Amino acid sequence: MTATSRGAFTLIEAAIAVALGALLVLSAWSAVRLVGGTVTATNRLATENALLRAGWFAVAAEADGWQLVDDPGDARRLRLRARARGVIGPGWRGAPFTPLPPNWPRSGVPGAEDERGFDPGYAWPANDPRTWFHGNIAQQDDARTDRRFGRYEIFTHLREDITLTMGAPAYGAARPAHTWWPNQLEGLRDHLGYYGAIDYMPGSTIWAVYGAGANTAAQADDDWGREWMATSWRFNDSSIGEGYWLPRGLYAHTNNAAYAIVPAIPDSALAGADDAAVVNANSATSPVGQYATTAQVATFAERTIARRALLPLRPASWPAAEIGVQRLIGWRRFVTSCRIGWRSALSGERRELTFTMLSTTLRGARQQRRLSDDPASADHDRDLDGGRISDRCDVRADLR
Amino acid sequence: MMRRGAILLVVSALTAIGCALMLALLVRVRSDGEESALVRGDAQARIMLIAACHYVQEASRLGWDDPGTPGHEECAGWVDARDGTPGPKTLGDLVAGPSNDHPDDRDGNRVYRRGSARWPDVGGVARCPMPVWQRTRWAVLPAIQNPIAADPASPEFGIAYLANPDPAPAADDHDAFAAGDARTRPGSDGRAWFRVLRIAPARFLVTSGAGASAGFRDWDEVEAAGAAAVFGDRAAFGRIRDAETRHWWLIEWSASCGDSYMVTRGMRQQDTYAWHPYNASHEDLGQTNYRNPVGSIRWVQHLDGEPAAW
Q1: What does the DSSP assignment read for A363-375?
Q2: Of A325, B96, B113, B123, which residue is most buried, by most CB within 10 angstroms?
Q3: ipTM of the complex
């Protein structure tokens, strides 16, 4: 038998070659599909990561600028400058961004007890007796004390001339020595709401004054101000079981409850609400601690967060991302709770990053805003507290 | 030969496609990395704001002790709690006079000299690079010193014994415990810094940064500090400065610490601006009897742009 060369495949060779070729093509096709899927998933993840990065800068800018809840360039976001009358007492009440100078004008002698209105340049030095609490911190309300430790109403009071009628014998007419501090406390509360008053007052504030101001319900000069201490009514949280009337610091008011900025913006719970509702919501305490129900905490969380879509106009295949900032005071801490959330365009799965941040406070945000947007106005260089903007960063050794 | 040439062409084309894809991937990864670095730098700079606030708070009273004297000099605040004049001034009797100054410290120097425009005077600047020490002063071990026995067979099962001192120092001898280890941890140098310009007795302009400039504002400042060799030349410093993240803030210090309610309850949590979730359950854990003797930060304002002086 001699070897001969062949010019063609046998049928078996051809069949095997075709089968192998088909296997090769299928494998290649699978590989291409796998690579394609991987590229798509990678791109999706890359897009999510890019949105996360954009979300960080957006939420940090919001934490610093408070634009979601108060934007001078968007009339829909100016509701926290509202005022309303008769919400709690007979007088006017404001919200966290209500301008102070036109609503609480300066009067009296600067640095004296009769000074009224807010001085943005005053640092409340600890040596100034005006800044001290002169009331009796151990004194409960009128019905539970015979004032055996003295009548502290004559030391500090909201009103400059008072008449003390309770007790036997009654004290009668008096002119309290210190009226500036109680009026600062009530004035900030009346014009900025609860969160605003806490933000502006020093950390050691005792939340109590003797007497009633013009914006609160009438009462005898002998009493503590009811709004600060009345059990579970307005400012006072009594869920810790200490509901009796007693002057207290911030911790006692916030270890089971919180004060918050309640935004009144599109897509918020207060969208479309009238001024009275906006003012009322920003002068309230909310249970969020161990005695609060799940529904109360959920309602609080929903009412107090300000959200916006990160990319309102986005490709359909991109995740729907949003940012949110919530500001509250709980456990005597100021909390700026930031959220970056996104929902997968394919699976619908929602994820959220939540973190807190040290950033611009309410007073800082008010100092960022102009009292007037008209460049020709003298108020153009004033902030919402009346402070001058143009020289704020100048070195000034005389400022106290 | 024709067939071999075709294979070469096909392989070359595939290789070129692969290279192009790889290049695109590298560009994408680099771009993502640069964007992530911006996020990291921004976060780092914001952390430096917290460090700056702590520095301002503590320097209102602490940090002025002269180690060469037996006493421990302390001061009475940026606005002196005794008379309202700018501080910090050492504790002691007032010295009568037009400037209402306070006594010299035990080393014969005055902590605060009004009119010098040098830190801590109004107009002065404190520049604070923030590398991480190998071990900070008075560092304690994070480990649990008295674990409760979890074995039911153990006679000590479930019983909390204070068998070992808790916390435990992170250094063996007291001198090392007090001094710490100031060598910087690898990778932490040149990452972040802050500087503080005192613009009023209680107000400060804080610059917080992430980058390798160590908080120097410009080359002239570098040369004045004798640090030119660290950066090489003006152009190199300029490149470092341009690559940094910076934020500017106004803050105001207050002598006010917290409310008395916590003291009466034996829990002294008196910091005013500490950011926590509102339902934080960990608040009651750990040591509760700590105090805040250094005041609080009353407000913070982020500035939109670079101020004229910082």
Answers
A1: HHHHHHSBS-S-T
A2: A325
A3: 0.91
Residues 108-147 of B with CB under 8 A from A: 114, 122-123
Q: Which of B198, B203, B276 sits opposite A333 (nearest CB)?
A: B276
Chain A nearest-CA residue for B276: A335
Would the pTM of this model clear 0.90, i.e. be above it? no
What distance in Å separates the CA atoms of residue A160 and residue A165, rounded to the nearest whole number?
16
Measure the N-to-C terminal CA separation of chain A; round to a whole number of Å.
Answer: 118
Asked whether the CA dihedral A288, A265, B298, A340 is positive or negative, the reply is positive
A169 in reach of chain B (CB within 8 A): no
Q: Is B39 helix (H, G, I), strand (E, B) or coil?
A: helix
- What element of type H or E holds A306? strand A305-309
* Tens digit of pLDDT at every position of chain A (400 positions): 455 556 677 889 899 999 999 999 999 999 999 988 888 888 888 888 899 999 999 999 999 999 999 999 999 999 999 999 999 888 999 999 999 999 999 999 999 999 999 999 999 999 999 999 999 887 877 666 677 788 899 999 999 999 998 877 889 999 999 999 999 999 999 999 999 999 999 988 989 999 987 777 777 888 888 888 877 678 887 655 455 677 888 887 887 889 999 999 998 999 999 999 999 999 999 988 888 899 999 999 999 999 999 998 888 888 899 999 999 998 888 999 999 999 887 788 899 999 999 999 999 999 999 999 999 999 999 999 999 999 999 998 776 5
Instruction: Annotate A32-83 with DSSP letters as a single string.
Output: HHHHHHHHHHHHHHHHHHHHHHHHHHHHHHHHHH-TTT--TT-GGG-GGG-E
